[in-house]
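ok so for the tutorial part 2 we go from a plain amino acid sequence to predicted structure tokens. step 1 is just haveing the sequence, like this:
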Amino acid sequence: MTGGERAPAAPLRTIRLELVPLDPEADAGPLHRAYGDEAVMRWWTRPACADAGETRRYLTECAGLPGARLWTVRSSDGPGRGDVLGLAGLLGAVDVPGLTWLLRRDAWGHGYAREAARAVADHALGPLGLDRVEAWVEAANHRSRAVAAAAGLGERARLGQRYPHREHPHEVIVLGRAREEEPTAVLGTVVELPVRDVAGTLRLVTAALGARTTFAMGDPPYLAEVGLSPWSGGPRFRLAAMDPEEPPSPVLLHLDAATRLDALHRAAADAGAPVSGPPVLRPWGRREFVITLEEGHELTLSGPG
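step 2 — the prediction. this is what the tokens look like for a chain of 305 residues:
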């Protein structure tokens, strides 16, 4: 199932909590205790909401995005039974389903966020049948990193980000958890290959490398990015339309294929990519094979010998 598919939300229960599907109209008032608190919103993607009306509009917008599944977090026992402590769920309109959580300040320090986040992650990868979930957490936000770890999410990538209301950029850790084990196929960096046919080369390399298109500009495309990992911010390279009057300038691109070298070789051969042959053990202790593109670019894929 992809993150854009919609599934009916159902209540979730943990040992101490009940997660009830969000009703923006009814829940905006109590949730404003979190969304209107600058201390709670310190790490958020937007500033604190000015009033309950703004909180309601924001929650309505979030709940309406494709793939969004949001629950209010409520106490299921004690004198505060039924109180809305915060929100947890899955963000909508994102490439990889995004795990999110937010609690009002007086609910901090009791492990509620960990309990709620774990319940949502388990539900997403279990009954919902999603392949993976991820959370983007600032490197300096140690409390949220601990919540993500308790929900079973591990580090997948790092990237720089700056929210419109922030003065300075910040480092984000992409933490993820998959339903089945997913070793990273390629470790590398972003380079740009000039090619005559961006669309055709894009089709070839995505099939050969089991990759995905992260963006394509123009129709037909004159610039496209190939993502070599299912996670946001993973290894990638770009294809750019070259001047047809200029001779090609071949680029040598080395891709560390880790433990998936043989699988990638089979995929490249099945896609009809011009491969050099089976992986060969090199004197420096790496097994390698080469995909040579029309312009002479060489994509050398290597793995441990």
